[in-house]
Amino acid sequence: MSISDAKLEASRANGAKSHGPTSPVGRTKAAQNAIKHGLCGKFFVLQSESQEDYHALLQRFIVAERPLDDVEYELVAKMARSTWMSERAVRMQNACFEHHLQSDSEKTESLQKISVRDDLDKFLRYQTTHDRAYARAAAELAKRRKERAAQERGFVSQKRAEKKQAQHDELFEIRKTSAQLTVELKQITVLEKIDRAGGGKSLRKVA
Q1: Residue in 54, 51, 63, 46 with CA at minimum distance from that of residue 83
Q2: Tens of pLDDT along 13-66?
Q3: How many CB atoms within 10 Å of residue 38?
Q4: How many CB atoms are closer than 10 A to CB 87?
Q5: What is the 3-state secondary structure of the chain?
Q6: Other C-beta atoms within 10 Å of 17: how many?
Q7: What's the pLDDT tens digit per position in 81-103?
Q8: How many other β-carbons are positioned within 10 Å of the β-carbon of residue 43?
Q9: What CA–CA distance (Å, rounded) separates 89 from 95?
Q10: pLDDT digits (tens, 9 = 90+) for 171-183
Q11: What are the domain boundaries of the chain?
């Protein structure tokens, strides 16, 4: 059945009036309308979650890990995001278990009807993925800290060696100067003996 030109124009006019949400908050909410679980792709906090709770989690990680530069901060943030996503996957796993109402006979027999949705395995895989992402970020952070500690130890050892070498050089110069003074002192002693010996001969001749 074809649509008349009048209805088509009316439909176009009505469509032109709708531009969707205009505020940042409205656009953010609208962007999540088609999201099913938010366990893959770009990270964000779902409408059903608390942005304040995520910031609190991130702050706890920062206080505990104390990142020293931008790279370490990003690794810590990745650990916080992975933790958040893993916990989201756990919540969705719990939602896969559906408890059904019991009949009177089942209540008497203490029986429960529980069915499990088919997508439980998917949420288990997502949890594993985010747990591994956390482990990789934590391992990279630990590696960077180990390398920095080794560099700092090497720097301290180098400074200690330089100080020891400087002390050795100073002692060598002192010993060298002392040896030179000893030689000069011996030379002066010999010259004094010669002068005294020469003076005595002159006195004997005069006498």
Answers
A1: 54
A2: 665 554 545 555 444 444 444 444 466 678 889 988 999 999 999 999 999 999
A3: 19
A4: 14
A5: CCCCHHHHHHHHHHHHHCCCCCCHHHHHHHHCCCCCCCCCCCCCCCCCCCHHHHHHHHHHHHHHHCCCCHHHHHHHHHHHHHHHHHHHHHHHHHHCEEEECCCHHHHHCCCCEEEECCCHHHHHHHHHHHHHHHHHHHHHHHHHHHHHHHHHHHHHHHHHHHHHHHHHHHHHHHHHHHHHHHHHHHHHHHHHHHHHHHHHHHHHHHC
A6: 6
A7: 999 999 999 998 888 887 766 66
A8: 15
A9: 10
A10: 767 877 877 888 7
A11: 37-160
Instruction: Specify the amino acid at residue 102.
Output: Q
Give the strand pairing for 113-116 and 97-100: antiparallel
Distance CA 199, CA 207 (A): 13
Q: Which two tokens stand for residue 38?
A: 């938010």
- Residue holding tokens 């969707």? 20
**Mind listing the pLDDT tens digit for each residue in 108-121?**
555 567 777 777 88
- Rounded Cα distance between 49 and 60, Å, is 18
In the block, residue with structure tokens 């100073």: 170
Nearest to 88 by CA among 60, 46, 116: 46
